[in-house]
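User: Please predict the structure of the protein below. I'd like the answer in structure-token form so I can feed it into my own downstream comparison script.

Assistant: Understood. Taking the following sequence of 267 residues as input:
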Amino acid sequence: MAFGAKVAAVEFAGDDVRVVVVKAGRSPELLEAYSATAVYETPEGRREALGKALEEALARVRHRPSAFVYCADASRATVRTLVVPFRGAGRVAKAVPFEIESHLPFPLEELVLDHRSVTEVGGETEVLAVGMRRMHLEEPLAVLEAAGIEAEAVNLDVCGLTALWRARRRSGRGLEAVLHLRENGACLAIMHQRALAFFRYLPMGGPMLSANPVRVAREVQNTLRSFMAQWRGGGEIAELNLTGADIAPEVVEAFSQALNLTVVPTV
């Protein structure tokens, strides 16, 4: 994607359709965001209603996008960190499907798979493998197609949120962690040298954090410990950044104390 290109990301969150336009580049910039709700009486009418809601949201867009991306829900993604016993982009790419197949409770053919090499240690390559079942992509892509939109790519909400968060930070090396709070869940992302190294969906969002920061801290802490136990790239996580919700200072403090880690809210 050319630097400065305007890209529209489309997300379906339940019956809500969201469209955001982002200026692409090394420092992506959010230009505008709109949403509309699908209204229907029977389940059979949902797809058509989603299409109408999408058209309603698109009609409000002022910056003409040069491309569209479908933003998929990270809670539906299959995520695995793998260690491939050799180096080299070509060899690693061929090995990833075989390495991840044993972790799947369904046939590999049902999975749309992508990966990125995170680090190389001792002749081995640590890989973040991410996939999504084709069945979870069929309806949203069909809605886009019915609206005359051809998605250039499928990405995950955690990737877009992390990219926008990173764009606001001028510094940052080694390991960094950020918790993206959403309405009904959260995504914990870990970066290594400014690139996504790991993420996990947590079924507890902003309202849960406000109601029970100790419980959320326990889940986050367990995930961070699990990641660090198998991480061989060196470094430590010094703080946890918080995005996506306006959390009361006293809740942030309680969360930080239970987590035993500095928590930095980012609006």
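That's the full token string. DSSP finds seven helices and 13 strands in the chain.
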